Amino acid sequence: MMEESSPPAELDDLDWRILDALQADGRMPNAALAHRVNLSPPAVHARVKRLQEQGYIQRYAALLDRERVGYDMLCFISVTLQRHQLELVEAFRAAIQEMPEVLECHHVTGEYDYLLKVVVRNRKDLERFVLARLTPVPGVARIHTSLALSEVKATTALPLDAPPPDREA
Predict the structure, then answer these.
(1) CATH classification for the domain delimited by 73-147, as one of 3.30.70.920, 3.40.50.1370, 3.40.50.1240, 3.10.129.10
(2) What is the pLDDT of residues 28-59, one digit of tens each?
(3) Are 54 and 9 in contact (CB under 8 A)?
């Protein structure tokens, strides 16, 4: 079920600069952030708090090197459901939420219904994940797995340097 929310207040250029700086370094001290955007520390603190309350900043996280912590395989798994009944869709989504190997799950258009970004330690873990965890989920009809050979680009930063269409420079 999708949640509806009221649109947040419009952001000014300082808000956009704060968001951009925090994407690059979420642990940036308030004083450094204030210096970077040329604002007082209390004013920056108030803006960051407002951006968090309005949902622009969802959370802060440490980004780990998956290979260094033992997850050698990055996979993209496409899943097709047997039927698009609400009960099956909800059961699938609930099951995916309980699978820590699934980093991302997207409901997509096209040949498949869902695209999963999955990490596993090795080939045996991938086999175990697909056969013992994913295949038994009620409603799963078809699974297609692709292995990432290398990461050409991986970022979490949104391109905030270009204003959205409704925000003229």
Answers:
(1) 3.30.70.920
(2) 999 999 999 999 999 999 999 999 999 999 99
(3) yes
